[in-house]
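User: I'm curious whether this sequence folds into something compact or stays loose and floppy. Could you predict its structure so I can see for myself?
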Amino acid sequence: MAVAILSSAYFGPVQWYQKLNRYDECLIERCDNFIKQTYRNRCIIATTNGVQALTVPIEKYDGLKCQMRDIRISDHGNWRHLHWNALMSAYGESPFFEFYADDIRPFFERRWDYLFDFNMEITQKMCELLDVRPHILPTDEYCNDEIDDFRDAIRPKHPLPDTDFQPRRYYQVYEQKYGFLPNLSILDLLFNEGNEAIMYL
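Assistant: Here's the prediction. I'll summarize afterward.
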């Protein structure tokens, strides 16, 4: 059985969901240390002004490190409203935004205490919408087994090589302006390709 381990992700990139689709079992790490500027609390979308990162604010924690399972979401700055407005502005004209809006909007209306729980519910909903059926298990201890580890390969800055991932072009609203932008948030693929998104994973 092919097993992969992934970091938790907030509307993770296409590459992240490709792993969910291609592995028999995926472990989502909840005991690793939270690291800033990763997909754990940010997603990258395409807008009329180019790429934009949407970041979920977190509460300050004691010490230099904190395990992912203990990271609490902050209500600072009305971020839910800002993220939803950014998505409406970026993808309101995309072919499938209206079709999926009612499924995605609740993530910006309801409050979650912990980032890991929030991300897991997003992952489950996205798998349902994409028709991806992975066996997902959250970890109870830090994993360092000899399994396919993508925690450092799938990150926005300085990712490690992933020879299995080759971005494939699909329709994007702003492609004429910026060219094809690979490996954006799974929302970009879903809003632009709808039920055909599974073909790109």
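Summary: Residues 115-130 form the longest helix (16 residues). The mean pLDDT is 94.
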